[in-house]
Amino acid sequence: MSKNTFESWENLVKKQLKTDDIYTILKKENLEGIDVKPFYNDVQKPLVNLPKVEESTHLVATYHETLEEDVFAFLLNENVENLVEKTIFINNKALTEHISPADEDQYFSLVDVFDESNMVIDDQLVKELLAKSFKRNICIDVSLHQNAGASIVQQLGIALAKTKELVEVYGEEILNKILFRLAVGGNYFFEMAKIRAFKLVFNQLSKEYGLDEIPYIFAETSLRNKAISDSENNLIRSTLELASAMIGGADAVFSTNYQIGNITENSEEISFKQQIVLAYESIINVFEDASNGSYYVEDITQQIAEKSWQFFLEIEENGGYLQSLKQGILQKKIYDQAVEEQKWVEEGKIKLIGVNLYPKLDVKKSVEELYNEKEIKAVRWAEMFE
């Protein structure tokens, strides 16, 4: 876009807002430290299409026998026999020990091989999983970190740091056996950019080992912005989160139940059918990189990638992921981020309709009741008002 054209857009905005001070008015704060412009006319370093592992995003449902004929991909918490020609995501540590998939099946592990509470890698679990013919044996789970209030930059930096810990122990050949489990929050374009940015930084890490790998990304909807008494809005939020994940290029998506604390068969079915509507009405699960070319998404993708890599390097300077946990460094960083985010919710800067805009006057928990700077634990924003 030429300078004259840019200036004409700028003048049009000034005219519409009836002020010359448009940048102050249109500036939008965010907790990620990302520079967001009021409008975009180009991107400095255009990206090529960012590929995904799966040609079409898997739409994953919690297993129920009534879904067997219609659903291709299931999340299993307990063993189910004869699921032939289905993609299976194992979500139970004990179950991974007993399943030996047939050749025609596609099995994935969603069990994190990091024992966060004891701050070690579960070496026995890793070796057992590597011996199985799963399509992706090893799960690195950073969904907990998102639900605990970690920033996008922190989530991706931690995912890289956990990856490097595994490579150091088991060798670089483990890189194409890893599945990354991410939680997708409500910041629509930022979350889209998060998935895209992780593809960039993971690929960069793989090149440090002479490889050119693409990360397998399993994205699930966040619990952080959901409320017990606000299930209809939960449903809207999770639908947008699924859209972010699909457009961003996740290989598999899963909708956590939108009814907090009151899960029913009906709510399980509706939660899954959000994905069906998005996939078959909008057809957004088949594109390789649907947001490529959007100046805004491209710009924030690259900013998130750069900041995530820097955060990863900070973790490495402190001795790596596990050592940073043992020193309490990461817990404190996530705590500080989560508390600041919770304050935005409390002040109404982050709006949760039906929760913090019109809260119950007699119910309000303190930040100290919700968070602990020595522990990474999931906390929903709405818990303050419930």
Automatic annotation (TrEMBL):
Pfam families xrefs: MM_CoA_mutase
Entry-linked SUPFAM superfamilies: Cobalamin (vitamin B12)-dependent enzymes
Top-rank lineage group of the source organism: Bacteria
Residues covered by the Methylmalonyl-CoA mutase alpha/beta chain catalytic domain: 137-379
Signal peptide positions (record): none
Identification of the protein by name: Methylmalonyl-CoA mutase family protein
Lineage of origin: Bacteria, Pseudomonadati, Bacteroidota, Flavobacteriia, Flavobacteriales
Family matches, as Gene3D superfamilies: Methylmalonyl-CoA mutase
